[in-house]
Amino acid sequence: MTAAPLPTLALRGADIPLLGLGTWQSEGDDARRAVRDALELGYRHVDTATGYGNEALVGRGLADSGVPRDEVFLTTKLPPDAAGRERETLERSLADLGVDHVDLWLVHWPPAGAATPATWEQFIALRDEGLTRAIGVSNYSLAQIDELVAATGEAPAINQIPWSPGDHDPHLVAGHTARGVALEGYSPFKRTDLSDPSLVEIAAAYGVTPRQVVLRWHLEHQVVVIPKSTHRDRIAANLEVTGFSLTSDEVARIDALGSSAGAEVGA
Fold first, then answer.
1. For residues 188 and 164, is the Cβ–Cβ distance under 8 A?
2. Residue 248: Cβ within 10 Å count
3. Measuring CA to CA, how many Å separate 27 from each of 31, 32, 36, 195, 229?
4. Which residue, 14, 15, 80, 214, is the most exposed by fewest CB within 10 angstroms?
5. What is the 3-state secondary structure (H, E, C) of 177-238?
6. Residue 251: partners with Cβ closer than 8 Å, 6 or more residues away
7. Quick one: which H or E segment has residue 77?
8. Furthest-apart CA pair in the chain: how many Å?
């Protein structure tokens, strides 16, 4: 199976590749090599966070890859306990990553469980200064997003939440769409029963793995997905999901694996 060019999604401020490399729990030289390998293989989207403690390693992997900075979509995140120190935290992230801006900066979790419009105001200001091209949130509910909009007049470009076929909730998807907020999913495999008969049967029909079917399902829904791996062969296999498509019936069959409750953060 031959990988096709990575599809992208237009955000306010930048176009984000729908498939990226996640780096949560990637440590030491494994993190550096994973980023380098992913970029050499054709990825153009890397997701990290200040809280992961690996921004410097991600930056080294980016430099080692030889891929020009302007070809890579780079995301990092503000830890919730850094609310009130937004500028200092982002400037340290940029220094560790070895770049002069990131493409997307997220509030990693609602600080102290609250929407915290004051932090969102700082995100808007630092975006307007050019330190990040786009801004968003992670693990926010729709009600918390509404609070940010009410306070500032600007919605996040994207909300990064746990997402998988088992989390699929069309009402939550529609709620984000209505607010002009893109969805980005994390932990696609941890939250999926990869032995489910539907996934196994669909995978067999295409000669792929259930993991690849899960990733392709995200892409069919225009949901950004960031599978994490430090193994070059698995990183390569994840990229191959651009080489096949699912039918609408197959997408609906996978959708049906979700509960009506949807993801907890969207409740």
1. yes
2. 8
3. 5, 8, 14, 29, 11
4. 15
5. HHCCCEEEEECCCCCCCCCCHHHHHHHHHHCCCHHHHHHHHHHHCCCEECCECCCHHHHHHH
6. 217, 220, 221
7. strand 73-78
8. 52
Question: CB of 225 within 8 A of CB of 218?
Answer: yes
Give CA angle at 249 (243, 255), nearest 5°: 90
Check: pTM over 0.90? Answer yes or no. Answer: yes
Token representation of residue 154: 């600007």
| Phi/psi at 33 (5° precision) | -65, -35
Q: What does the pLDDT read at residue 3?
A: 59
User: Given pLDDT bands bounded at 50, 70 and 90, which one contains residue 25?
Assistant: confident
Q: How far is CA 110 from the centre of its chain?
A: 17
The pLDDT tens digits of the residues spanning 244-259 come to 999 999 999 999 998 6
Burial 26-61 (b: 16+ CB within 10 A, else e): beeebbbbbbbbbbbbbbbbbbbbbbbebbbbbbbb
CB-based contacts of 59, cutoff 8 Å, min separation 6: 96, 97, 98, 99
Burial profile 159-190: b = 16 or more Cβ within 10 angstroms, e = fewer? bbbbbbbbbbbeebbebbeeeebbbbbbbbee
Q: What was the pLDDT predicted at 1?
A: 53
Q: Give the 3-state DSSP-derived string for 110-121, with helices as H, strands as E and coil as C.
A: CHHHCCCHHHHH
